[in-house]
């Protein structure tokens, strides 16, 4: 396995320019919706996240695509568990998120990524990126249409 990994955001771009900046998004702090979609995180002591619906407006009723980005503070025991259960490698690029959460992503972190963790969470059913700083116990996530886990 390589020593580094390059990860692109689910939206396909790892950078945001002023021309593509999203409108203001409301920052949510409710852990419930995050844990429903990402129970693998374990105990979240704090979380801030935003979501954005996208796609073509349609007069037909049907599912709406959405993207969710956030920053979660994981409990120390869960950070250690994730490090033991998965191979994490240094990320080549910093996390890419929706513009509304970007200011909340800590700077100067030692971000790591794990293909096995990403697959465990997504099962290949949706696109997502997960960046962990194991020393700080901070997880940055960005996903398109993440499924709610089965109870």
Q: What is this structure's SSE topology?
A:
Layout: H1 31-37, E1 44-54, E2 65-74, H2 76-85, E3 89-90, E4 112-113, H3 115-122, E5 127-133, E6 138-144
Antiparallel strand pairs: 1-2, 2-6, 3-4, 5-6
What does this structure look like?
The chain is of the alpha+beta class and 151 residues long. The chain is 17% helix and 26% strand. It is built from three helices and six strands. It has helices at residues 31-37, 76-85, 115-122, and strands at 44-54, 65-74, 89-90, 112-113, 127-133, 138-144. The strands form two sheets. The chain has a four-stranded antiparallel β-sheet with strand order 1-2-6-5. Strands 3-4 form a two-stranded antiparallel ribbon. The longest helix is centred in the middle third of the chain and has 10 residues, at 76-85.
Given helix and strand content, the structural type is alpha+beta
Q: How many whole angstroms does the radius of gyration measure?
A: 15 Å
Shape: globular
Strands of the widest sheet, in order across it, are 1-2-6-5
Number of separate helices: 3
**Overall pLDDT score:** 84
Number of strands: 6
The proportion of residues forming helix, as a percent range, comes to 10-25%
Percentage of residues in DSSP E strands:
25-35%
Q: Largest sheet, if any?
A: 4 strands, antiparallel
What string, H for helix and E for strand, traces the elements in order?
HEEHEEHEE
Low-confidence runs of at least 5 consecutive residues:
1-8, 12-22
Distance between the termini: 33 Å
